[in-house]
Design brief:
15 strands; alpha/beta; 235 residues
Length: 235
C-alpha cells in the first residue's frame, strides 16, 4: 500500500509514522503538513496513494476540501479521517470516507484500519474476465460502475469506458456479490462504491449517471445499499 498522512500536528505525525514503522507489512508512505502541500505533490508528481490518513482541521484548505479534490482525480482511493470531532461525520459523506479515527489515535485502532483497508483493496482488485472477439479482458472490480443486461449481451460500464460482450447478467452478479455489487433492476447490477445518492426509483452515481430502480428490486436494493454502507464504515 502507498499511504499519505496529511496532518499539521507534529506529535500526531510522529505517532502515526511510528505505527506504520511497526506494522508487519511492506508499506510506503509520505507525510504532508497541509492540504495544499498534498495536492501540489499529486499534481506535480502525479503520485497517487491507495490510502489517505487525513486530518480534517488543517490550516488553509481543510481535510474535507482536500479530499473533494482528490476524489475528482481518484475515485478508488480509501480515505480515513483523523479528527478530534465526531460531529464532522455528517459533513464528509460526499467524499465517501473509509473509516474515522478519533484523536489521540490508539495503536490497536490504527492497525485494525490498516488491516481492513488492505483487505478491501485486495478484494476490489479482483478481476472480472470476459472475451470480445479474440481478445480477453480483465477489469478490476474497483473500476466497475455498473453492468447493464441487454438480451444476450452485457454492457459493462467502467470508470475508463464501456465494454459490450456476450454473457448473462445473473451469472456475473453472482461473481461480483462478494464485492457488494447488487441488483437494482432486472437489467442493472451496480457497484455501491460509486453511488452518490439513492432514490426510490433511481440511483445517482458519482459521475452523474442515473440508473433505474424497479419496484420489484426496490426493497432489496435499499437493504443491500445500507448493508454495504455499514460495512464500508466499519459498523
Amino acid at each position: 500500500m502507498k499511504i499519505a498522512i496529511c496532518e499539521d500536528d507534529i506529535k500526531t505525525q510522529s505517532l502515526l509514522e511510528s505505527y506504520l514503522e511497526e506494522y508487519p507489512a511492506d508499506l510506503e508512505w509520505k507525510i504532508f503538513s497541509s492540504g495544499e502541500e498534498l495536492l501540489a505533490h499529486i499534481k506535480e508528481d502525479k503520485d497517487y496513494f491507495s490510502l489517505y490518513f487525513m486530518d480534517i482541521s488543517l490550516p488553509g484548505i481543510d481535510g474535507i476540501q482536500t479530499c473533494a479534490q482528490i476524489r475528482k482525480r481518484d475515485q478508488k482511493a480509501l480515505i480515513v479521517f483523523v479528527t478530534d470531532y465526531k460531529e464532522y461525520v455528517y459533513e464528509v459523506f460526499q467524499v465517501l470516507p473509509f473509516r474515522f479515527l478519533i484523536k489521540p489515535v490508539k495503536k490497536e485502532a490504527f492497525s485494525k484500519v490498516l488491516r481492513e483497508a488492505a483487505d478491501f483493496l485486495l478484494l476490489h482488485d479482483r478481476r472480472l474476465t470476459f472475451r470480445i472477439r479474440q481478445t480477453m479482458y480483465e477489469i478490476p472490480w474497483g473500476e466497475i460502475l455498473y453492468l447493464e443486461g441487454d438480451l444476450r449481451k452485457v454492457h459493462l460500464h467502467t470508470v475508463l469506458g464501456e465494454y459490450t460482450f456476450y454473457g448473462k447478467l445473473e451469472k456475473l452478479k453472482e461473481q461480483l456479490t462478494p464485492g457488494g455489487f447488487f441488483q437494482c433492476h432486472k437489467s442493472y447490477v451496480v457497484n455501491p462504491e460509486y453511488i452518490r445518492a439513492s432514490r426510490e426509483t433511481s440511483i445517482i452515481l458519482r459521475n452523474g449517471e442515473e440508473i433505474p430502480v424497479s419496484k420489484s428490486f426496490r426493497k432489496e436494493s435499499k437493504e443491500k445499499h445500507l448493508q454495504y454502507l455499514k460495512g464500508r464504515w466499519g459498523q
